[in-house]
Amino acid sequence: MELVFISAAFISGYALMRCHLPPLVGFLIAGFVLHAMGYQSTPVITQLADLGVTLLLFTIGLKLDVKTLLTKEIWFGATAHNVLTTAFFTLALMGLKALSIPMLSGMSMSEMLLLGFALSFSSTVFAIKALQEKGELNATYGTLAIGMLIMQDIFAVIFLTATSGKTPELTALLLFGLPLLKPLLGKLLDKAGHGEMLVLYAVFLALVAGAGLFEAVGIKPDLGALILGMLLASHPRASEMAKSLFNMKELFLVCFFLNIGLSEQPTWQSFSFALILMLLLPIKGVLYYWIVNGFRYRVRTALFTTLTLFNFSEFGLIVGGLAYKTGLMPGPILVSIAIAVSLSFAFSAPLNTFSNQLYSWASRWLPERAPDELHPSDQQINLGDASILVLGMGRIGSGAYDELATTHHQPIVGIDTREDSVSRHQQEGRRVILGDATDPDFWSRAVSDGNISLILLAMPHSHANTLALEQIRQTQFSGKVAAIAKYQDELDQLKALGVDEAFNIYQEAGSGFARHVRDRFSHPDS
């Protein structure tokens, strides 16, 4: 039977992916169709679904940067939005119940509050995929969106723990000694390599040292996975470990979304109620914009953050799924949430695709603050006397910067979207400033005392380089532009847009290696 489930999930997920929608929408649809055909979930699928949630929480723990979460824009903004959105949805549901909406007739106040809480979340999966496709994961608005999503995940974990119904045993006090094991866990991670042992170590930490240990002392297992991840979040290889688990976690979560579809049969009532929830979604977006803009961010930053978070969440489904298991939420309501999540993705996807066009239109109506009133991370950029700009100061951009600094005697300035990267480069003596070169406002806000003659597009994502190149061409820039890409079709696209030189980084790396070997061994005394 599991083979039927896997086949249905693949076919439906692939079809939705080809429609430029998240595959998880297809997994939900596959579950609904299978349920209509008389299929029921199996213990294997249920177990894999639980493993997916556990691994998800472990990877969230690995990404928890406490310093980022402590900024008021993140912790206060996410908390305020969660409280206000939960209150709004709860009041709206109470009003709908008063209007005799059938789906709400038997729901108590506490159940409507729980439903409002589940609807307050936005999708981490959708946001990360949307930001990655645009190459703006580290942009100002991307950092804000991801930070708020992590705070929402923490709220969900607190709920999952509080509703577990488990009474901790006295031995649970020993868990306060877990931080003492952090150095040992870090050393083991250093020695785990980059292959299957790294994945196995991650699974061991999540399922055995985390979930298994916490369950043994009477505490929600998923909380243990999150805490073990947090212990290693500051380790240099935490990001690599999270990436090594990505495909396994996503595969197990397929079973979770299948389980949601297999749990209840959609009805016209549940579909109609999902449409009502979609009509309430814009208020959730307005609250996002109001809160971000209230921290003195630019209109573009507030609007793009809103569009990235303008949806319902798969984590809301996880909360709803647990509430359904414990009898706190009716099955038809859970189905309505699943349908609303799918519809919100279908609605939000094109909004993010055409976000720049929406901003160009909306900026005419939305008031902008004066430059000196803006948030420090969102103000104008002074390029000084730069003659050469390097956009993207990763490994390639840094190497290009150093080479040009050695061979040319012209002022060079690097631009990067990550504050930690900018600080590190400045400490190493490079002139690097914070900025988002894909931002349509970047070039109009930039102030330069020199005559820029060369721009290097060295951002790791080709789409980001393409967006930056489009912005450069709109400024009537008369100098030279060079760019990097990973694949031939990306090179062709850059050349079609008018870049003066485009380089395949893999081919150039091979050529550089060959030249280095030739120069090194061509001298007998070397």
From TrEMBL:
It is a multi-pass membrane protein. Pfam families: Na_H_Exchanger, TrkA_N. Keywords: Antiport, Ion transport, Membrane, Transmembrane, Transmembrane helix, Transport. Residues 385-503 form the RCK N-terminal domain. InterPro entries: Cation/H_exchanger_TM, Na+/solute_symporter_sf, NAD(P)-bd_dom_sf, RCK_N. It comes from the Bacteria. It is found in: Membrane. The chain crosses the membrane at residues 21-38, 44-62, 74-93, 113-131, 143-164, 198-217, 245-262, 268-291, 303-324, 330-351. PROSITE patterns: RCK_N. Belongs to the monovalent cation:proton antiporter 2 (CPA2) transporter (TC 2.A.37) family. This is Potassium transporter Kef. It comes from Salinivibrio sharmensis. The lineage of its organism: Bacteria, Pseudomonadati, Pseudomonadota, Gammaproteobacteria, Vibrionales.
